[in-house]
Amino acid sequence: DIEAAARTWWDVLRIGPWTAWEYTPAFLKEMTYGGEPAQFGLKHALAWKDGVQFELVQPTTGPSIFADQLSRSGEGLNHIGIHVMEDHARAVEEILTSGFTCVQSAKGFGGDSGGTFATFSSPQLNGILLELIGPPAVRREPLIVYPLPEEAKK
């Protein structure tokens, strides 16, 4: 439950405000899971604290690395993300050449249908996944913002 998780991270660690979006197969494009074409959906929320971006993810439909983790080991750290601002396709090619395996990817999560992400595994990372993110120039309207700016000042 992404809203409950956002409340917990705010109440316990004062990380927030959280801005959440829902991504569905209706607008995500070129989705893959396990190296094959796939359809999945998720809710995700972002927040910043002391220069570090935090992300919460709730799988909603279809197979995904997030649903896998929940069934395998429950909630917890899933991946480390890196924003690739210049050439996402080249960064993906380089990481694949270095021996990583793409476990999930999609494009089109931005308000302008931009944005891309690809998540990779490697035996060298001891189970932690690495995500290369090409952030969208424009974000979609958020699903939620928690806490609201006036509540965050309290």
Could you explain how this protein is built, in words?
It is built from four helices and ten strands; from the N terminus they run H-E-E-E-E-E-H-E-H-E-E-E-E-H. It is of the alpha+beta class and 154 residues long. A hairpin with an 8-residue loop joins strand 7 (101-107) and strand 8. The longest helix is centred in the N-terminal third of the chain and has 12 residues, at 2-13. It is globular. The two termini are 24 Å apart. The relative contact order is 0.21. The mean pLDDT is 92.
Search tags:
154 residues; alpha+beta; 6-stranded mixed sheet; 4-stranded antiparallel sheet
The helix content is: 10-25%
In angstroms, what separates the terminal alpha carbons? 24 Å
Q: Determine Rg (CA atoms, Å).
A: 16 Å
Total strand segments:
10
Q: What would you call the structural class? A: alpha+beta
Structure annotation, total helices = 4
Low-confidence stretches: none
β-strand amount: 35-45%
Kindly report the spatial arrangement of strands forming the biggest sheet: 3-2-7-8-9-6
The overall pLDDT, averaged over residues, is 92
H/E series: HEEEEEHEHEEEEH
